[in-house]
Design brief:
alpha/beta; 6-stranded mixed sheet; 6 strands; 21% strand
Length: 176
């Protein structure tokens, strides 16, 4: 995660197919991977783009994870920073959307072009099929690993860093 969101996280437990105990809004959101530490909420969605509303859907998921934290009108403070990471396993239908890594944040930009980092929350889109020379170095190998795995075969010798060896070993032990 540090390679993708550039922060340290200390996660105790990861939930798969997570849903909030009480439905928030009109649609019951289900998260592929959901993890929290004391300060952060990390959501990872792995998605094969099929629906026209794809980007709207994940903005909604991201916003629900913010809204869910507000329990009363007397306290509008978000207790945890939300990072939603969406991994696109196919190319977007909209051919103008051509990126391997894109980050959306809610920080306002004033009339002078200055960005004010008021909100730390991030919605991150990763597209391993569009890795290119401008892909951030810290994310690139992760995307190459994901892309290499999409056909069900993996050339493990391409991923020599210890963290990747550890991941591949865990995959073999769990027979994923």
């Amino acid at each position: 995660m540090k390679d993708v969101i550039d922060i340290d996280i200390n996660i105790d437990k990861v939930h798969t197919e997570y849903e909030y105990p009480t439905q928030i809004g009109f649609v019951k959101s289900k998260y592929d991977l959901f993890a929290e530490d004391i300060e952060k909420r990390i959501i990872v969605e792995i998605q094969h783009i099929k629906e026209e509303d794809f980007f709207d859907r994940f903005l909604y998921y991201h916003l629900i994870s913010l809204v869910e934290q507000i329990g009363t009108y007397q306290k509008y403070q978000f207790e945890k920073t939300v990072y939603t990471i969406v991994v696109l396993t196919s190319l977007p239908r909209d051919k103008s959307v051509q990126f391997s890594c894109a980050v959306s944040d809610m920080s306002p930009i004033d009339e002078h072009g200055k960005k004010h980092n008021i909100y730390p929350h991030r919605l991150i889109f990763l597209c391993p099929r569009l890795v290119n020379e401008d892909t951030p170095v810290n994310v690139k190998t992760w995307l190459e690993l994901i892309e290499d795995s999409l056909d069900g075969k993996l050339e493990e010798n391409k991923f020599t860093a210890q963290k990747f060896k550890d991941i591949l070993n865990a995959i073999h032990q769990q027979r994923i």
